[in-house]
Each structure stands twice: as C-alpha cells, then as structure tokens.
Amino acid sequence: MGLTSALFAPDTVGGLWLLCGPPASGKSSFRRGWWNGPVVSPDELRLTMFGASFDPRREGAVWARVRQQIARLLPSGTATLLDATSVSRSARRQWLKFAHNAQTQAYALACWDPGRTPVAELLSRNRQRLDPVPEARVLSLAAAWQPPSLAEGFGAVWTIIAQS
Fold it and tell me: 152: how many CB neighbours lie within 10 A of its CB?
C-alpha cells in the first residue's frame, strides 16, 4: 500500500497526534511507514493485555491504559501518536482536552476521504487482515466519519490517503 502525505516534522513540535479514520483506512500503515516517535495503540494494548482483539467487556481497562500511557508521555514534550479511529468530533474532544490539560497542542492526521476511498475499498482491505474488524463495525465507523478540522481546536490538520 503506497501512502501520500503532506510533509511534517512531529519531532520538532511535540504534542498529541491523532490518527483519524475508520478501520482499514491506512492509519497503522502510515504509522509503520512514517512515524518514529512513541505510539499508543488500543489495538496493540488489547493484544498485550488480553491476548485478544476487541471485547466490549474489556474496553474500559484498555482505554484507561491508553489515557495512562498518554498522560505519561505528553509531559516529556515528545510527539506522541494515538493510533485509534477517532472518527467523530465527540471522540476527538476528550483528546483535545487531554492535550490542553497537559499544556500541549493536539494535531490531527485524517486518514480517510470517502470521496477518494470508497467504503467498499475499506471493506476489501479489512477482509485481507489477519484479524478483520467485524464488517458492521467498519460500516458504522465509516458512517460516523466527521473529518477533523481546525475549528475543533487542533493546531494543524493533515490529510493522508492510503492508496492500494
């Protein structure tokens, strides 16, 4: 999967960086190919903590650990990446407050543009995963998509589109 991206230098600005997009939009591929700093990933925490993917009964513990890790990393001034879906303004609001309370900036990396990557492409990519997200979940998160904007309080917003 090739990626197109705006140029940016997170290591020079610090802050909390949010990857935003439904499953299979290229968030983790971007992270593996372009990000050098600390990453907090609920998907990886689920596997580390419980040896399994999404389980609604365990989500409280997973997200408590996400908040704990971000709270530990932000004061260092190092750019920290949150690799989560963050598809809606309401989902991102807590992270903007988190960054504000840590006296740092939040930045958004929008990894999906439905005009360029149809939902059918997300579903196709998802089917190729070793541990696919349930199709209904991909569809519901795609339907909830609200592109991040400066008006939410981000210091900057970039759009990064994964290409097949």
Answer: 15
Instruction: Output the CATH code of domain 2-163.
Output: 3.40.50.300
CB 78 within 8 A of CB 105: no
User: Helix, strand, or coil here: 110?
Assistant: strand
- The domain ranges of the chain are 2-163
What's the pTM? Answer: 0.89
State the DSSP code for 132.
P
Sign of CA dihedral 13, 18, 21, 22: positive
The distance of Cα 51 from the centroid of its chain, to the nearest Å, equals 21
How many residues are recorded in the chain?
164
Q: Give start and end residues of each alpha helix (H) in the chain.
A: 27-34, 42-50, 59-73, 89-101, 119-127, 135-143
- For residue 94, give the amino acid letter: Q
Across the chain, how many H-helices and E-strands are there?
Answer: 6, 7
Question: Is the distance from CB of 92 to CB of 148 less than 8 angstroms?
Answer: yes
> Per-residue pLDDT tens for 92-142?
999 999 999 999 999 999 999 999 999 999 999 999 998 899 999 999 999
- First and final CA of the chain: distance in angstroms? 5
